[in-house]
């Protein structure tokens, strides 16, 4: 179980998170939703210790992150919001780097690396530089790296962006089976159909504030027959002073 307690993050002049408190249970797929800039990545980066919250705390299974940082980091596999990193390295070099950081035994690493590379259709590309890859291939490389150590907590920031339909299907299956083992799967997405299909629970952020956390079923029951997209847009959607698609299309209503 992961708990965020009164988390605040201020970047210079931007308050990215405002008093965020929520609980993420084990054995569920937990989604973070929110418009661009709502604070999803900031929340996930705080959990994986890439950034330090301004105040508040995070605990994993009752252990305070600030006091048990290294042990908790070893339990987490993280897919960052951009796959454009380590562009000079080959995919294999990148996976080696992860394997040594997590001290994965050689045999286990070779087995998992071969399985994951095959699943995501990356075996033939393993010795090519990441910089030569398409966006989706970079994303696959990062996803494989995150899952390579077989971590029990998955923190995936928009993991499906750029992936092909087969890879999306396979990743969703992996996420389901990981959660079914009682482990933790956390991801952020802008694709509400995916969130509705995949998440057991979710959190919706708006301008750094939590506006909903709880089960997807419960949220859907508040508006019978409405999709998560409809409900989400009602909760987190456009402010009155923003232009509508109709305004941009000259008010024809043909949208
Ligand atoms: N390194 C940074 N320095 C300054 N401001 C930042 C930094 N990182 C994020 N922010 C700001 O914090 C706020 C939250 O950003 P964050 O990346 O967490 O949003 P997000 O919900 O992940 O957005 P997106 O859906 O676009 O990825 C935004 O206003 C953003 O501009």
UniProtKB/TrEMBL annotation:
It holds the Pfam family ABC_tran. PROSITE patterns: ABC_TRANSPORTER_2. It comes from the Bacteria. Keywords: ATP-binding, Nucleotide-binding, Transport. Coiled coil: none annotated. The keyword NAD does not apply. Residues 2-232 form the ABC transporter domain. The keyword Cell membrane does not apply. GO terms for molecular function: ATP binding; ATP hydrolysis activity. SMART domains: AAA (SM00382). SUPFAM superfamilies: P-loop containing nucleoside triphosphate hydrolases. This is Putative ABC transporter, ATP-binding protein EcsA. It comes from Lentilactobacillus parafarraginis F0439.
């Amino acid at each position: 179980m992961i708990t965020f307690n009164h988390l605040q993050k201020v970047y210079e002049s931007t308050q990215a998170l405002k008093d965020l408190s929520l609980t993420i249970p084990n054995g569920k797929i937990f989604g973070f939703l929110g418009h661009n800039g709502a604070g999803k990545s900031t929340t996930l980066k705080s959990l994986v210790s890439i950034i330090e919250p301004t105040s508040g705390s995070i605990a994993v299974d009752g252990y305070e992150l600030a006091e048990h940082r290294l042990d908790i980091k070893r339990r987490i596999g993280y897919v960052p919001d951009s796959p454009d990193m380590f562009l000079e390295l080959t995919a294999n070099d990148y996976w080696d780097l992860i394997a040594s950081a997590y001290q994965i035994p050689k045999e286990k690493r070779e087995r998992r690396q071969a399985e994951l590379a095959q699943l995501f259709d990356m075996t033939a590309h393993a010795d090519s530089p990441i910089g030569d890859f398409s966006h989706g291939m970079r994303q696959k490389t990062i996803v494989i790296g995150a899952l390579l150590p077989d971590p029990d907590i998955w923190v995936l920031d928009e993991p499906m962006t750029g992936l092909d339909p087969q890879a999306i299907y396979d990743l969703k299956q992996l996420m389901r089976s990981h959660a079914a083992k009682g482990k933790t799967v956390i991801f952020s997405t802008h694709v509400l159909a995916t969130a509705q299909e995949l998440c057991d629970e979710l959190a919706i952020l708006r301008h750094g504030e939590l506006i909903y956390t709880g089960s997807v079923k419960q949220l859907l029951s508040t508006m019978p027959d409405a999709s998560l997209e409809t409900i989400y847009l009602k909760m987190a959607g456009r402010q009155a002073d923003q232009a509508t698609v109709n305004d941009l299309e000259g008010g024809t209503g043909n949208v």
